[in-house]
Design brief:
It is elongated, with a radius of gyration of 26 Å. It is of the alpha+beta class. Strand 9 and strand 10 form a beta hairpin. The chain has 12 helices and 11 strands. The strands form 3 sheets. The protein has a 5-stranded antiparallel β-sheet with strand order 6-5-4-3-7. Helix 2 runs parallel beside helix 6, helix 5 runs parallel beside helix 7 and helix 11 crosses helix 12. The protein folds into 3 domains: about 130 residues, Arc Repressor Mutant, subunit A (Orthogonal Bundle); about 80 residues, Roll (SH3 type barrels), CATH 2.30.30; about 80 residues, Alpha-Beta Plaits (2-Layer Sandwich). Helix content is about 40%, strand content about 25%.
Length: about 325
Amino acid sequence: MTCLCENLIGMRADRLVAILLLLQRREQVTAAEVAEELEVSERTARRDLEALGMAGIPVYPIRGRNGGWRLAGGGRTDLSGLNADEARALFLLAGPQAQLTPEARAALRKLVRALPEPLRERAEAASDAVVLDPTAWGSRASRAPAPPHLAAVQRAVIDREELRLGYQGRGDASERTVHPLGVVAKGQTWYLIADTDNGRRTFRVDRITSLEPTGETAVRPDGFDLAQAWEDVLERVDDIRFHVTAHGTVDPELVGVLEHALGTRATFGEVTRHGVEVEMRGHDIRSFAAEIAGFGRHLHIVDPPELRAALAIVGRELIERYA
């Protein structure tokens, strides 16, 4: 299941289903036939077919002059080549039907009708087994529309197309040529990770003002790992946002509470007679003091002295207000 999702996550659900239905109708198809049917490039069709096979769906190539791709188990009458886990995985991958495009929902309904029993009931259940809620507890519910250029960016990543972007950053608007590598959703915000002449950069998709393929092929570095690249982005952003570092100790019984409050900004060390050693990061001295003041005597700050002084000020203000 994990392998399936990792290999197919870049494919659109409606295209994935369309390929399987095409394999169902015909004994054998070529990448060129898939490309013509789905109105994509032959390279994209071949990559999708390979991804299906790599992900564990029983799609396999026939080599030679009269070669092509087939669905194991006799795909002309039904999709019996799929086992129960694979059928469920396909629908889990596609996600909640309420969040799909009308075209994707129609494709999934066709696939359900094509599935043999008892897979049909399980697949239908899987399609309603997942709800994606990007809103954290305590946050206001909001559902931002997809950025206007999201589909084109995703297509460029899959087809490995070099792009010329118009981009509105925090400063002036600019244009730049990029090699798209991957797309990441963080909450309700979409980001494009791409290589540029000035190194690897991360772009908010909703700040892309224009987009045009250059006609050149985007270069994808050997061994590129999108998940690791995003981890690198998160580390850099954290370093920029949280540049105040503090050291101290916390009572052992409150380690979990502090970790929940600060997340990855808290790193715990050895247990000493004063408590558990902890390194923490905050945005600035004043806001950091306000953030951790509620731990009172259970959290002892050793350095920096500026944070200790700010905590003392917060303490005096609370006494003056509530003593």
